[in-house]
Each structure stands twice: as C-alpha cells, then as structure tokens.
Design goal:
The protein is an alpha+beta fold and about 650 residues long. About 45% of the residues lie in helices and about 15% in strands. The chain contains 20 helices and 18 strands. A hairpin with a 6-residue loop joins strand 13 and strand 14. The protein is elongated and about 90 Å long. The protein starts with a helix and ends with a strand.
Length: about 650
C-alpha cells in the first residue's frame, strides 16, 4: 500500500519537477567541477573586494569602479558572510544561479512546445561551454541569464491567466534584473514590445499586462541618475565597436563549439556542427516563434547599438543562448526520430569536445607565490597597471605572506574594509617589515624613493599584459648605498611567473665607450617602455625585409607611447622607421636626460628614403653632455595604431 501511494504521488508531480530537479543537479555538477582550480582574475577580484565592503560603501564607490547596479554586490556580500571568500565560495553563487537556468529552460520549452523539445533545449544549455564558463566566474552574468528566463516564464503565464501572482512575480523579477545589470533594460523593452504585438493581434486594448513592468521601471527610476554617471565616467571606452566578425564569434560561442571566439581554432568537423546548430534554429524562426525572440532580440539590439557605442559584450546577453537552444531544439524534435536523434547526438558530441578547450585565467596565484616567497622587507613591487593590485592582493590572501604596504598616493580607495586592507596597514616608515606595493601605469613612471627602502632591498615589476602574452616577472636590481642615481646599473631579468624565483643575475658594468644596434626583436636592450607596445612581423617584403619592428597597440591619443634606452654617455644615435604612405605622417619626438626624470627635447636630422612604406632615418649628433637616457616617443593622432613602425636603433657612447 505504501509503495502504491509513493508511486501515485510521484505520478502526480508536475513533469517539470520530475525532470527539472535531476537536470538542475546534473547542471550543478558540470558547473562546480574545477570551479576553484584557477586564480580569480582582475574583474573577479574587484567584484569580491567591492562586495566585501559595507552596503553603504558599495553604493558610494560603485560609480567609480563598476558599470553595474548594486544588487548583485549586495547578494554577494551576504553570500560571503555565510560561505567565506575562497575562490570556490565566491564563484559558487554564479554556479548555483547558472544551474537553475536549465530546469527553467526545460519548463519554458515544455510550455511552448512538448517534452522532447524541452529536453533537447535543456540538454544543449546544460553542456554549453560558454554558459559553464560564466557560471564559474564571480560576476552576475549567469544569474542574470537565469532571471531573464524566469521573467519570460512569468510574462507568458501573466498574459495567459491574468492571475495576480504572475503579475507580482513579473514585477519582482524585472525590478531585480534592472538593479542587477543595466543592459536588461533591453529585456524589459522586449517584454513591452511582445505585449503590444500580442494585444494588437488579439485586437485587445487592455493595458493591464504592462502594469507590472511599469511598476518595475518606477522602482528602478532612482538609480537612473547614477547609471548616467557611470556611463559618463569612461569605464566602457575600452570596448571596441561591433563588427560582423563579432557576430560570427558570438554565434560560435552560443553553439558551444568553442569557448574562444576564434574561427582559426576550429577544425572542419566542429565548424560543420556549428552550422547545423544554427541552421536548425533559423528553420524554427522562419516558422514563427515570437516567444524565443524575447530572449534573442535584446542581443540583436545591443549588437546594433554597439556599432556606434562602447556597449557590446556577449556575456551581458548570455540569455540569448537559451533562445537559440529552444529554436534549434524545436527543429530537431520535429524531424524524424532517426535524423533528429543523430543530429542531436552530433551537436552534443561537438559541444562536449568544446568543454576540453578550457581558457586559462590570469595566474595571480603564481605571482603571489613568487612575491610571498622571495620578497624581502623593504622591497618595492611595481604592479602594472594599478588596478592589478586587487587580484594580486586577493591571491596573497590565499597563502601565508609577509605584510604588504601600499606606496603613498596610489589610485586605490583608502578604506578599512575589504581584503585590500592588508596593503593599507601600518604607518609609512623606512624600516618596514614588509614589502611596498606600488601601482604603475608604465615601467618608466618611476615613483621609487630609495630613502624609504632598506639597505639591500630589491625592486620588482609584476605586469598584467593586456594582449595575452605570457606573464613576466621582472626582477630588477639591488640598490647599493650611496648611489648618485637611484637606478644606476639597471638590469632586467625576465622569467615566467612560477612558484620558484630564478637565480639572481649579476649586474654588469658598461664600458667607457662603444655602440649597440637594437634590431627590435624583443625588449632586452630597452631600459623601459610604456605598456601599449608590441612587435610586428608581417609584411616583411614591404618594410625592407625586416622581420621584426616595434609599434603601438593603440593610437596613443590617451597617453603617448614611448621607449627608453640607457647608456653611460650618449654621443649619437640613428633610428630607422617606416610610415604607411596612405596615412598622415607625424614624426617621432626625441628626449634626452641625465637622470630619467628631467627630459629635454632633441631635434634630430630627418632623412626620408621612400619605398612601399616610407622609410625615414632620424640621426642625432649634437647630444647634450652627460646624457645617459634617450626617450623615443611615437607620434599620436589619426594614424592607425600600427603606423609608424621602428625598424632599428643604433646608439654610440
């Protein structure tokens, strides 16, 4: 009798519960697996730091450090109070939020179509590497995507039944979305559009369905001035305008064939699988399914806005993946079972292969291991750029580490809250027992004062490279007492960031006279340089056969790009550069200095030589006496970032 009652109770459970709960648990396994293996990268560390502050401080500082509303930070704040601040703990919120999307996608597919469509759609989302990646990151994107699906479900129920419960839930979810991610205003706009189109088709003019949405917008209104302030503070100017290649990359990510947005990484089989996936989605869209557009249209609108505004970010419209999966599942479910089953298995197999292509996050744990193991009292650690102090400080928190002190006048908030407080402790003194952390925009922007450094202190440089070149720790030199110039005898030894410190290299002495030719294959002969420089090796035939030239990675309109050489007593120099003939030419600027602090402009002789790319030779002869440093500054302005390019530099002393 008990067995019969249990069976009857199970049969009486809604289909969504019977299937949805196992789907949620399986999705959670996929998203928790390996979740704490990698370091928190820059954005995650700032998210944790900001969310660790008191709630009032979060609201006050949010406009300076983030572009999102405060609700996710509030939730993460309370989450960390309960579960702690380990990498596993702070990412678990996103994992749980992301896993909840899978039963909701199943429920939505079940409501719009049938059980087979719902299951296929949920399966495609469950194993999608793009969704799993952001479900393992301490950001709000996976949580927002789940909330969007829930809001769509409530909207459909509200439109069909007019029950007050669904209206209240729709109001709450929309308000939560608006206070979690600003771009969800496009989701709300899509809901209003859907309601308007539906009422028009029904020839009904009852505007009651939009009341929950209007109420959510009214509740969101107090945050709008702050959102405008965030939009005007330049925090999104790093986002490039969208192009067709961005659309292609986004489609690659949505289909789950590759986590990395690079078509070059595809093999032909997986490319075919991606095309099949998208073709199934398009076939369903042609037959009409406006509910799926509630999930897809905000992504399309954001992409179009992104062609003229710094807005586009595929992660902010992660929920579009659910709409694509539902559309593809509808076609696959309607095909004959043998064909649809084979295509579904093929797509699932290609997606599972994509799970093996795990991108690497920034290895801050390795940097912290290097610093905590080898930094001595009084050492100065330059961190480039300054905001990289946050992930480094978080990584040092995960292991035993000496006390760290923030160098004076750093561009970080001096607040007693959050994990960054470990680098604010103690007074500014020269006999400190810990190492100084100094945030830097460029290695050439030296703020080091040797009077505050212990007798045998070292200077370090830990750099975050924006172009995904392998990280480098730069161990510089030992400061000798009584040095007339703080950086006399500078020696740079490059080494990968690993838990072991490379053996110290001796600092050599320069001969009284000589010459050096730098063919610019690397930075080994350069004293220091700004961070936005790189080497180019293409178009060799058009640039005198030179296989390696130095150029910029942006136009330099925000900050001029330059590099510096150091020799005992500079007598002359010759710099060979190439200019693209189709762009307006702006000449290099040259500066000389005795101490790398005070610079004097030097006008060299300029000799244009012609060629496919215009070859120009700069020759400096009358060098001021005592010159030890030569700075070569790229022109700034309208020319492309890769124009001009420096081919070689010859120095004599």
């Amino acid at each position: 009798m008990k067995a019969t009652r249990l069976r009857d109770s199970i049969i009486g459970l809604p289909d969504v519960v019977l299937v949805g709960v196992p789907l949620f648990l399986l999705a959670l396994v996929f998203r928790v697996h390996g979740i704490g293996d990698q370091s928190l990268w820059q954005d995650e560390a700032w998210e944790v730091w900001l969310s660790s502050l008191p709630l009032a401080s979060i609201v006050r500082l949010l406009p300076q450090y983030d572009t999102s509303p405060p609700l996710y930070h509030f939730v993460l704040h309370e989450w960390m109070t309960v579960f702690g601040r380990s990498a596993l703990a702070v990412r678990l919120l996103s994992a749980v939020g992301g896993a909840l999307a899978i039963p909701l996608v199943y429920a939505l597919g079940r409501r719009l179509a049938d059980r087979r469509t719902a299951f296929i759609a949920a399966l495609l989302v469950l194993i999608n590497p793009f969704h799993i990646w952001y479900s393992q990151e301490t950001r709000s994107y996976s949580v927002v995507a789940t909330l969007v699906v829930g809001a769509v479900w409530c909207l459909l129920q509200w439109m069909e039944t007019s029950r007050r419960l669904w209206g209240v839930l729709l109001f709450l979810l929309d308000a939560i979305l608006l206070y979690t991610q600003s771009t969800t205003i496009l989701v709300v706009a899509a809901q209003v559009t859907y309601i308007g189109v539906t009422l028009y088709r029904r020839r009904q003019w009852d505007f009651t369905p939009v009341l929950p949405i209007v109420a959510a917008l009214i509740m969101w209104a107090p945050w709008v001035p702050t959102m405008v302030q965030q939009a005007n503070n330049g925090q999104t100017t790093w986002i490039p305008f969208t192009t067709l290649s961005d659309a292609r990359d986004f489609m690659q990510q949505l289909t789950g064939m590759d986590r990395q947005p690079s078509l070059a990484g595809y093999d032909p089989v997986r490319l075919v699988i991606a095309v099949i996936f998208l073709a199934c989605a398009v076939l369903s869209l042609r037959k009409g399914w406006p509910e799926a557009l509630l999930l897809i249209s905000p992504a399309i609108v954001l992409f179009l806005f992104g062609t003229h505004q710094h807005l586009w970010g595929p992660r902010t419209v992660l929920f579009a993946e659910f709409g694509i999966a539902l559309l593809a599942a509808r076609t696959l479910a309607r095909l004959p079972f043998s064909i649809g089953g084979c295509l579904t298995a093929l797509i699932v197999l290609g997606t599972l292969i994509g799970l093996s292509d795990t991108p690497a996050k920034e290895p801050w744990r390795g940097a912290a291991a290097l610093l905590c193991t080898h930094a001595s009292p009084g050492d100065v650690v330059y961190v480039l750029p300054p905001y990289a102090l946050a992930p480094l400080a978080y990584a040092t928190m995960e292991r035993p580490c000496p006390e760290l002190f923030l160098w004076p006048n750093q561009p970080l908030p001096r607040t007693p809250d959050g994990f960054l407080n470990r680098i604010f402790t103690g007074p500014i003194r020269s006999d400190t027992t810990g190492a100084w952390l100094a945030g830097q925009e460029s290695p050439s922007d030296k703020i080091f004062d040797r009077r505050l450094v212990a007798r045998r202190a070292r200077i370090w440089l830990i750099r975050r490279d924006s172009f995904h070149v392998p990280w480098q720790a730069v161990s510089i030199f030992d400061v000798t007492p009584g040095s007339p110039v703080a950086f006399q005898g500078l020696f740079i030894a490059y080494a990968d960031i690993t838990p072991t410190m490379p053996a110290p290299q001796p600092v050599g002495t320069n001969p009284a006279s000589g010459s050096v030719v730098d063919d610019l294959k690397d930075f080994s002969k350069i004293y220091s340089h700004t961070s936005e420089l790189r080497f180019f090796s293409d178009n060799v035939g058009f640039l005198g056969g030179d296989a390696s030239r130095l150029s910029r990675t942006d136009t330099g309109t925000t900050r001029p790009q330059s590099f510096i050489y150091s020799v005992p007593k500079l007598r002359s120099f010759e710099v060979t550069a190439y200019f693209w003939p189709r762009a307006a030419m702006g000449n290099f600027t040259f500066y000389t200095s005795r101490d790398a602090r005070t610079w004097t402009t030097l006008t060299p002789n300029i000799s244009p030589r012609g060629g496919d790319w215009k070859k120009v030779v700069y020759a400096g002869q009358r060098i001021p006496a005592g010159t030890r440093y030569l700075k070569i500054q790229f022109p700034s302005g309208a020319a492309p970032y890769w124009d001009p390019q420096v081919s070689s530099v010859t120095l004599t002393w």
